[in-house]
Specification:
Length: 365
């Protein structure tokens, strides 16, 4: 599929062929009078007062025509979303905020409307006096009430359905998210929250968004931090790194038996289990949560402190679209019957988490 790039200036390519250019295409004349015509590219000339973020000059812009949503009402419409990969059914709310901004909210099953677990803001952004790009920002208010199947696979299908829906029915130049994900670790006394990127990178070499949504990071300092973190987890830190923590005495046998930091963390994670909501927790459940606290977050933040502040790009051409996506208009009488309130009227809404899933599961692939 053809694509374009956000560019600050025209790039010149060294070649043995002569090149002639127009605004949207170029024709290269090579020896033997052979003419090669590359795909049309979308070129955006950026003015000096627009500062590209996170090296986005390297980001391809997809060229495609979105499908037309059925019965899009003037301000707000509801849709039922199904797909062929699982039995999950979701609800999408499309709200036109202004001429330049549309909000897409996707939540639980049809029986839990209107729990809005994933929100995508689609905005038109001016990058010069005459040019704009359409940016989609993926934001999450994700917790256990959104996870209808009580596992990480349900969280993944929710994210893929929401992004597939947005990319199918809206023209999007740039799709971004911020990774502020956490995994929860519940004990009888306390609920700990740990860095999910720290765990996923240690275990798989990629973040959850990179593994599951094929998200891309182009910010070179952050990529360097990730490489440094991956090098660190393959080493065994000296005991002095952990000795000052209150759990040092209990932690030391694990440290002594571990060949490196990665093995230490994975050994502790192996005995951490998901606890269902409102389940009585015994004193012996998830005691390793306390052993990970707070040094796992301290070390993760030391290496990955900027990860939550840089853009992750979801590229259309490499995104794993959900199979068999089907969209049906949800009639207004069905919305009223199943809705029963909204997040703005106090139905348990607890604030958008600004870009990160919260997980309590372990060892899901």
């Amino acid at each position: 599929m053809p694509f374009g790039r956000i560019t600050n200036s025209r790039r010149r390519r060294l070649s043995s062929c002569s090149t002639s250019q127009t605004h949207l295409s170029q024709t290269r004349k090579c020896k033997h009078n052979r003419v090669v015509s590359p795909p049309t590219k979308k070129t955006i000339m950026v003015t000096n007062n627009y500062i590209p973020r996170d090296q986005e000059t390297e980001i391809p812009i997809p060229v495609y025509e979105p499908l037309k949503l059925p019965t899009l009402r003037e301000y707000m419409s509801y849709y039922k979303l199904t797909q062929s990969e699982t039995n999950d059914t979701f609800i999408a709310k499309v709200e036109i905020i202004s001429v330049k901004n549309t909000e897409i909210a996707v939540g639980g099953s049809i029986h839990s409307l209107p729990k809005e677990c994933v929100k995508i803001n689609v905005s038109s952004i001016s990058i010069s006096d005459t040019q704009t790009i359409t940016e989609a920002n993926f934001i999450v208010d994700y917790n256990e009430r959104c996870n209808t199947e009580k596992n990480m696979k349900s969280a993944l299908i929710l994210a893929r359905v929401a992004i597939s829906f947005a990319y199918t029915y809206f023209k999007i130049d740039k799709f971004i998210l911020r990774d502020k994900s956490r995994f929860h670790c519940k004990t009888r006394q306390y609920e700990y929250k740990f860095s999910l990127p720290g765990r996923e990178l240690l275990k798989y070499g990629k973040t959850w968004y990179q593994r599951q949504l094929n998200a891309h990071i182009y910010h070179q300092p952050t990529l360097q931090d990730i490489r440094r973190y991956l090098s660190f987890v393959a080493t065994k830190p000296p005991w002095s790194v952990f000795s000052h923590y209150s759990t040092a005495e209990r932690l030391k046998p694990y440290w002594e038996q571990s060949a490196n930091y990665k093995e230490l963390v994975l050994t502790l994670l192996k005995d951490i289990y998901r606890v269902e909501p409102e389940t009585e927790i015994g004193d012996d459940i998830n005691q390793n949560c306390k052993l990970l606290h707070p040094w796992f977050n301290d070390i993760s933040d030391e290496y990955l402190q900027d990860l939550s502040r840089v853009d992750n790009f979801i590229l259309r051409d490499s995104f794993p679209f959900v199979k068999g996506l089907n969209v049906e208009v949800l009639p207004e009488n069905e919305v009223v019957k199943r809705g029963g309130g909204s997040r703005r009227r106090g139905n348990g809404y607890d604030g958008w988490n600004d870009g990160g899933f919260w997980f309590t599961e372990r060892n899901y692939r």
